[in-house]
Design brief:
This protein has helices at about 10-15, 20-55, 60-90, 95-120, 130-160, 165-185, 205-220, 220-225, 230-245, 245-280, 280-335, 340-360, 380-395, 395-405, 425-435, 435-445, 455-460, 460-475, 485-510, 525, 530-540, 555-560, and strands at about 375, 415-420. The protein is mostly helical. It has a two-stranded antiparallel sheet.
């Protein structure tokens, strides 16, 4: 035993026993369960505190704090909107784009404000008990309320104010705004209102100017008094408004004039290229024609090579077949010498069968045997001599038969030719040249044998067809019946193609510049084109008149675009 009555052996045994391990595991589970119970109790206590707060105030503290912060942040863009509205509505150089931007900004801010207001009023109790649920309801309200307010404001104004107004009311409203703008431009002067447009406006002055139009619109008597001077006020306002920025607009216009001259220089260079392309018609035509003649020359050379190759092939076959044909005719004569009967017939049949097999070996059209024979002319002297000899040998019987044949319309035994066979290779070559000509036509692309010069090849109809097809691939359109001897039609087709190419290239360049101007315009005509006038109008704005030319100086511009009506003193009201 050791200190405190503990045995080392027993202690070690207990530490390694399964019971000890289970006890440690149970202790850990107990601690984990106690910790979870404490956490659940804390959350329940916190939730009870929130519910108690909701019972007392209707909303949890974190939600009220969030709404307060959002409302505080909302005041900043609201203040910016009010300042921008006063500056734009009471400013001197405000444009329609500025008013539109302020309007959209104001509608956006209004949508946010109404969304915050309704969210604070509608969300309470269990709806805001949990943060995730509160944010979900807030998002739903924002999705519904903000677009409704943003688009609804415009619809209400359009439907209940603008659309419901009469033409007289709209005219009165427009006149009130013109009066406001005329006062800002110092085009009119009101008794009792000391206004200097050149001084910097205070916030109070801008506020007064922003509501001035509404004050005038509300005063029917004042509007009736102003109708007598309406035209005078309008003309003076338009002139002063234009002249207030005359120097700035003219400076922009003066800078643009040099840019426009550079554009015209570029345009004139393009027109010159266009004209040079049209002037090159004859040169282009000669080049196309030379290319055509080279094509004909190449075709003629290929035809000659094909003819020579064909003749060599035919001669080779003729050399092979000539002795066999000669032997065939020899055998046929022997068969003919036999007596009539089955032996003679079988002789001719065997001979014909052998002939057919031999001809089939040469891969050429079938040629009847008699087509190989040579036509041999018989002279009159030979006919007379043969007739005399035959008459002597027959003791005049042959002569008597000749006379009888002549009386009945016969030839009296006189023949003008006879068909004989030969072993001459050239004869068989000539026969094959004719009989195998379809093969040559197929190989040559349709050309027949017997074209002996390049001129005959050029005027051949097939040559014109092939050249026409090649030209069509290059964009030259000619009549299907066109011939190479028709140079005039060829030149016309080239001229048409050159113009089409020049026009297409010109249109492509103009399209890249968003223009459709034709070429070769003068400087004066160039300035008056619609696309140029649009660019000048963008520079001159209110000072623009149609047409405004880039040649005008300040005097010309003032005289032609502004008609001086007043002496510069604003009318008093």
């Amino acid at each position: 035993m050791t200190e405190k009555n503990k045995s080392p052996f027993a202690t070690n045994l207990l530490n390694t026993a399964p019971t000890h391990t289970k006890m440690e595991s149970a202790e850990k589970e107990l601690k984990k369960t106690q910790k979870h119970q404490q956490s659940t109790a804390a959350k329940a206590k916190k939730q009870q505190a929130v519910e108690a707060q909701i019972i007392n105030t209707g909303k949890p503290f974190w939600w009220m704090l969030l709404m307060f912060i959002c409302s505080l942040v909302y005041l900043f863009p609201e203040a910016v909107f009010n300042a921008a509205l006063t500056d734009v509505a009471g400013g001197r150089n405000s444009s329609a784009e500025d008013l539109r931007a302020v309007e959209l900004f104001g509608r956006t801010i209004s949508g946010i404000g109404v969304t915050l207001l309704l969210a604070d009023l509608l969300l309470k109790g269990k709806q805001v008990a949990k943060a995730t649920r509160a944010l979900g309801y807030f998002t739903l309200i924002a999705v519904i309320v903000w677009p409704t307010v943003f688009f609804g404001q415009k619809w209400l104004v359009d439907h209940f104010i603008i659309d419901a107004s009469t033409p007289e009311e709209r005219q009165q409203a427009y006149l009130s705004q013109v009066l406001r703008s005329a006062l800002i431009e110092n085009s009119i002067a009101f008794e009792g209102i000391d206004y200097d447009p050149d001084k910097k406006h205070s916030a109070v002055e801008k506020t007064f100017l922003s509501v001035f139009g509404g004050l005038v619109y509300a005063d029917d008597k004042l509007v009736d008094d102003l109708k007598q001077k309406k035209r005078l006020i309008m003309e003076k306002f338009v002139r002063d408004r234009a002249m207030s920025q005359f120097d700035q607009h003219y400076a922009n216009y003066d800078n643009f004039r040099q840019t426009l001259r550079d554009k015209y220089t570029e345009y004139a260079a393009g027109s010159n290229q266009y004209n040079q392309a049209l002037a090159s018609v004859q040169t282009r035509s000669d080049a196309y024609w030379l290319d055509t003649q080279n094509q004909v020359k190449q075709g003629w050379e290929q035809y000659q090579k094909g003819t020579k190759a064909y003749e060599a092939r035919v001669e080779s076959r003729a050399q092979k077949i000539a002795p066999k044909l000669y032997d065939y005719f020899e055998r046929r004569n022997k068969c003919a010498e036999k007596k009539s009967g089955s032996n003679k017939d079988r002789c001719f049949e065997r001979l014909q069968t052998g002939y057919d097999k031999e001809i089939a070996k040469y891969s050429m059209p079938y040629i009847p045997p008699n087509d190989w024979l040579v036509r041999e002319e018989i002279s009159t002297s030979e006919n007379v001599g043969n007739s005399i000899i035959s008459g002597i040998l027959t003791f005049g019987l042959y002569t008597a038969m000749q006379a009888a044949d002549a009386v009945t319309g016969g030839d009296a035994g006189f023949k003008d030719h006879r068909m004989v066979y030969t072993n001459d290779v050239n004869h068989y070559k000539n026969v094959l040249m004719v009989k195998m000509e379809p093969d040559f036509v197929k190989e040559s692309g349709g050309y027949p044998l017997g074209i002996n010069s390049i001129h005959e090849f050029r005027v051949n109809e097939l040559t014109s067809i092939k050249v026409n097809k090649k030209l069509k691939q290059k964009g030259l359109t000619l009549s299907p019946s066109w011939s190479l001897i028709d140079r005039n039609s060829f030149d016309i087709a080239v001229a048409k193609k050159v113009r089409q190419q020049a026009d297409a290239e010109w249109r492509s360049k103009m399209k890249a510049k968003n223009s459709d101007m034709p070429p070769n315009l003068s400087w004066q005509t160039f300035q008056q084109q619609g696309v140029i006038q649009q660019r000048i109008q963008r520079e001159m704005k209110e000072l623009y008149v149609n047409p405004t030319l880039a040649d005008w100086n300040t005097v010309s511009l003032n005289r032609k675009s502004l008609n001086p009506i007043f002496d510069g003193k604003p009318p008093s009201i």
